[in-house]
C-alpha cells in the first residue's frame, strides 16, 4: 500500500523517516528500534563499533534488508513489502559499497550506462553522454573504456559512485566506501563525496573517517548494539558527547 506524505505525520522536508525500525536475523535483533529522520540535502554520518547495525540500518533504507517492525518512509513512499514500492524507492536511492561491486566483464562506461538503459530505457547515446559527464565529475573520464580490473581501488570506487549517480537518485547511501582502499586513495574518494555533499545531495554515510565526518556531516549518529545511542552535530559529538559509550568509542578511535 502506498502511503503519501500527507496524513502520516511526515513533513515534506523529511526525505527519510524511520519510526521504531526493528530487524532481526533469527533470534538476534540487529536493529532494536531505530527512530530518526533525514532532511532533504542533509548529510548524516553513522558511526559505531563493528556489529552495531550500521550496515543493516542503511540496507533497510533501500530494502536490501527487510525490516521486521516499524515504518520506513522514503520521499513519501512507505517501504512495505509491495514490490512496486520497493522498485520506486530503489530508483531514488543510490548505494555505494565497501567492495565497489562493479561488473568485471564490462567497461567502465558500460557499468555506468547499464541501469539507465535498462531501467530508464534511455537510448545508448543519452546514457553515454550522462556517463561521460559523471566520469568528468569524479575525475576519471580518461578511464571510460577500461575494465574495472585495470583501475586502482580509488578509481573503481569513483566509478561506483558515478554508476549510482547515473540513476539520478535523490539520496545516496554509502557503506564504508573507503574501508577497502589503500590510504593514498582514500582522499580522492572522500573529495568526490565532499563535492557531492556541497552540490546538495542527501547523503547517509557509514564511515570511520572522522575528519570527513567532522567536516562534512550535518549530523552524526552514533550506534551501538542495534540502537542509536546519541546523535547531534559534529561540534556536539566530538567536543561534548554525553554518553559513556560514545566517549569510550571516541577514545578508542581518535
Ligand atoms: P555493522 O555494519 O555496524 O558492522 P551490521 O549491520 O553488519 O553491523 O551487523 C549487525 C549485526 O547483525 C551483527 O551482529 C551481524 O553479525 C548481524 N548480521 C548482519 N547481517 C546478518 C545476516 N545476514 N545474518 C545473520 N546475522 C547478520
Ligand atoms: Mg557494516
Automatic annotation (TrEMBL):
Please name the GO terms that the record assigns under molecular function.
Answer: ABC-type amino acid transporter activity; ATP binding; ATP hydrolysis activity
- What's the short name of a Pfam family annotated to this entry? ABC_tran
- Decide whether keyword ATP-binding is in the record: yes
Keyword entries, A-Z? ATP-binding, Nucleotide-binding, Transport
User: Do the record's keywords include Glycoprotein?
Assistant: no
Query: ABC transporter domain: which residues?
Result: 16-250
Per the record, the domain of life is Bacteria
Which family, according to the similarity comment? Belongs to the ABC transporter superfamily.
The protein's name is General L-amino acid transport system ATP-binding protein
Q: Which organism is it from?
A: Ardenticatena maritima
User: What phylogenetic lineage does the species belong to?
Assistant: Bacteria, Bacillati, Chloroflexota, Ardenticatenia, Ardenticatenales
Amino acid at each position: 500500500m502506498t502511503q503519501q506524505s500527507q496524513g502520516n505525520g511526515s513533513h515534506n522536508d523529511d526525505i527519510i523517516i524511520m519510526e521504531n525500525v526493528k530487524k532481526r536475523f533469527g533470534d538476534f535483533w540487529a536493529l532494536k528500534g531505530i527512530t530518526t529522520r533525514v532532511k532533504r540535502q542533509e548529510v548524516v554520518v553513522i558511526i559505531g563499533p563493528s556489529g552495531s547495525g550500521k550496515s543493516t540500518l542503511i540496507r533497510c533504507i533501500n530494502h536490501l534488508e527487510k525490516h521486521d517492525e516499524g515504518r520506513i518512509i522514503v520521499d513519501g513512499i512507505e517501504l512495505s513489502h509491495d514490490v512496486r514500492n520497493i522498485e520506486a524507492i530503489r530508483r531514488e536511492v543510490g548505494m555505494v559499497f565497501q567492495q565497489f561491486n562493479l561488473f568485471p566483464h564490462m567497461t567502465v562506461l558500460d557499468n555506468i550506462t547499464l541501469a539507465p538503459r535498462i531501467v530508464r530505457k534511455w537510448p545508448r547515446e543519452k546514457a553515454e553522454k550522462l556517463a561521460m559527464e559523471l566520469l568528468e565529475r569524479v575525475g576519471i573520464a580518461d578511464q571510460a573504456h577500461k575494465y574495472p580490473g585495470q583501475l586502482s581501488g580509488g578509481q573503481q570506487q569513483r566509478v561506483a559512485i558515478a554508476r549510482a549517480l547515473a540513476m539520478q537518485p535523490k539520496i545516496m547511501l554509502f557503506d564504508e566506501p573507503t574501508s577497502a582502499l589503500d590510504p593514498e586513495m582514500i582522499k580522492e574518494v572522500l573529495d568526490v563525496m565532499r563535492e557531492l555533499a556541497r552540490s546538495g545531495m542527501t547523503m547517509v554515510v557509514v564511515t570511520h573517517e572522522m575528519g570527513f565526518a567532522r567536516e562534512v556531516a550535518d549530523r552524526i549518529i552514533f550506534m551501538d548494539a542495534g540502537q542509536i545511542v546519541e546523535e547531534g552535530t559534529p561540534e556536539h559529538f566530538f567536543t561534548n558527547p554525553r554518553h559513556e559509550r560514545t566517549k569510550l568509542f571516541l577514545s578508542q578511535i581518535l
